[in-house]
Amino acid sequence: MNTPVLRLRQAFRKFRWELSILTKTRVPQPFLNEMQDVHAENDVELINNLPYRSVPEPPRSQSSQSNCDEMAKTEKMPPRAQCPNSSGKRPMSDEEDIVLSELNDDELVEQMFDDLYDGLKEEIEEGVNILLERGWTPYDILTKALVGGMTIVGHDFRDGILFVPEVLLAANAMKGGMAILKPLLAETGAPRVGKMVIGTVKGDIHDIGKNLVSMMMEGAGFDVVDIGINNPVENYLEALETEKPDILGMSALLTTTMPYMKVVIDTMVEQGLREEYIVLVGGAPLNEEFGKAIGADGYCRDAAVAVEMAKDFVSRKHNQLAG
Fold it and tell me: Which CATH architecture has domain 104-188?
């Protein structure tokens, strides 16, 4: 197939895949049909403007795979950059497989960084279990292996290198490791970075951004209590009284619901609770000026910023209490 048509179809497939992940629902069929009709029309127009009806695929050299294999032997090539075989897939061999149990501690932690980055949940769970068997404390595994890896993910998300689908995969892998560590951390009474209550405000049922922040915060070592969507002020106050967190996080995706954040903050002021908690807000229609106007401590433009800001505020709060 010619390059313009191929790129057009690839872009459509990528758009459909990412949209379905973000919404966690199927893309409406009428919309897909309309998009496919547009692409079909463009296919015809692009092909008719070419001097040939189709471009034949160049024959694959019989020696191309052997040449590629020879290159892999003589030159140092990273495992994920190996040459494709005739089926288009990277050839696998026993030599390429990484056996986590055979790595020393430092190598294993570095490999877990890579596995978190790639969203490999089973590998993260295996790595956590191996470190536990080697006598690592749950807290050290959390802070050195999991939090360290998610810090890299957070920085690349902040810098635009990674996007929401990749971060969701990394966060899901992190949750696999946390499921093993959480009961052990509770038993040992390990210290925590801080605690956060987070929820979407009344009238708003959007939760993708909130869920991403929750997972990133857990990955950074915070205890997170997610109270869900469509929360009236009473839900926030009840959660604050029950959980006694360091931080209250509020999310909104609609311009019609974002003013409700001020209702919650004003109620906290009226009841004398405002100074006891750090209040962070976020959501697509918000900005820094809005955050200041409603009396929040900070506006978080994305999950990575939320983690950094939360760490900074909690550190300052703990220092003030210690002083």
Answer: Orthogonal Bundle (1.10)
